[in-house]
Automatic annotation (TrEMBL):
Family: Belongs to the NAD(P)-dependent epimerase/dehydratase family.
One Pfam family per UniProt: Epimerase
One record GO biological process: L-threonine catabolic process
Protein name (Swiss-Prot/TrEMBL): NAD-dependent epimerase/dehydratase family protein
Residue intervals of the NAD-dependent epimerase/dehydratase domain: 5-239
GO molecular-function terms, A-Z: L-threonine 3-dehydrogenase activity
Domain of life: Bacteria
Amino acid sequence: MDTAILVIGANGQVGKVLTKALQDKYGKERIIASDIRKSEDTNGIFEVIDATDIDRIKEVVVQYKVTQIYHLAAILSAKGEENPLGTWNINVKTWLNVLEVARIYNIEKVFYPSSIAVFGNGAPRNNTPNNAYLDPATVYGISKVDGENWAQYYHIKYGLDIRSIRYPGIIGYQSLPGGGTTDYAVDIYHKAVLNERFTCFLREDTALPMIFIDDAVRATIEIMEAPAESIKVRTSYNIEGISFSPKEIASEIRELYPDFKIDYKPDFRQDIAEYWPKSIDDSEAKMDWGWQPKYDLYSITETMIRELKAQYEMTI
Ligand code: AKB
């Protein structure tokens, strides 16, 4: 059967860039982008899907004879704390709907995005191993632990081929920050390019694991294309690009904008970050399916500033 890929949550930070990468790889006619709302810059096939509605997912899967699903819709850590039960309902219900549809229609492969938010106080903060104890402190983190375990359950019980990555904070220029604790590391570049002072909601020494969007999207496609027998972890794989603190990113930005100003006003997001790893051990992903990051803080900064400058110049 021809490959037909459904991307749920295609308007989000990863969804946007992943949809484009999949279109380039498989052809526009094979990728069905979907989200709760149609986006302005939709380019290719797009279907409005509210993923809490299982019948709507089924309809699209049947209409396009879908063979793979990437399920990216979720409410992130900081936003999730505003409405814990609503977040639980959306994050978990949409995932269970996707799993059920995948089971009923024999979907060949499914991608599930987990997060470093699955870790809490029970895990080592430095070089956190893949199989560390999981006791998350946010509803988002709890929903991701739950989602990983459902993924493994559907794999064992029904033989579904589900693959998953625990994303660290993702840095990209294609979308504005969307409710995450790591999003300061996107916002900071916008302020630098606009020559504005940046007020950081984390303390200057709060190191967190991060990854550039190109590396995150490449990892996603690589794990999905790896031979099934090389996927040994059926909950989720740790991956990391680099780890840095607000102070370190600010000092890298000052290499290009020497007058860049930053101050620190930690808020509730500091408490979220306190529970998360400072750095991640991704040796299992490296060993099992060949994961290798390409971007360091220097190349991320250089790319972010170049791309954002071009975007802002176009809107002037
Ligand atoms: C967030 O900050 O909530 C996300 C994540 C680490 O999953 N970027």
